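The instructor's notes for this session suggest beginning with a concrete chain rather than abstract definitions. Hand out the sequence below and ask the class to guess, before any prediction is shown, which regions might be ordered.
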Amino acid sequence: PTQALKLSRRMNKVIQVLLLTVFCLGSCKQKPENVIADIMKHYEKINSTLKDYKVKQVDDITSPASGTITGYYREDEIKKIESEHFTDTSRTFSEYYFDDGMLIFIIKQNFIYNRPNTYTEEVAKAKGDSVWYDDKKTRMEITKFYFSNNKLLKWVAPNDKEVPAITWAQTNKEAALWAETIVLIKELKEQ
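After discussion, reveal the predicted structure:
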């Protein structure tokens, strides 16, 4: 009987180790490139079904520049937020994407003017300047942020250069992105 009991305990330990191994293998992190591919599928799906969502638009009252915030909802779940801001030196369009209530992707398009748009040819010449606002000289910078489990996974700066993770920590970029996202959600809810 004691031999059978020892064998039974060993078998239980072997089964526990096997189950733990299977569980660990099944829950291992996906490769970042696979996570990003999934994020892009959600991004495309959300944009292709925008007409099916309830839309709410409000003025951005916390921004020093004029702007609007548009939220896209499936029932009460936020799927996308668009934020537009206009100043005399730039215009910025930001999009925030969500899946099951979790932030998954942010894309920012920043159009930077060569001079303030109020700096007309007349103003420039009166000041003796040979350069004035010219929309043809506006440059666009696109920045992308990928999130997994609400954590910043990848930051792609303008000119498609990946920003090293050490920079994220030094600049508190993840916290700053979360803060702006929360403000946008709050403005949509309160107005």
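Then share the key points. Confidence is low (pLDDT under 50) at residues 22-27. Helices lie at 2-26, 32-48, 121-126, 165-171, 173-190.
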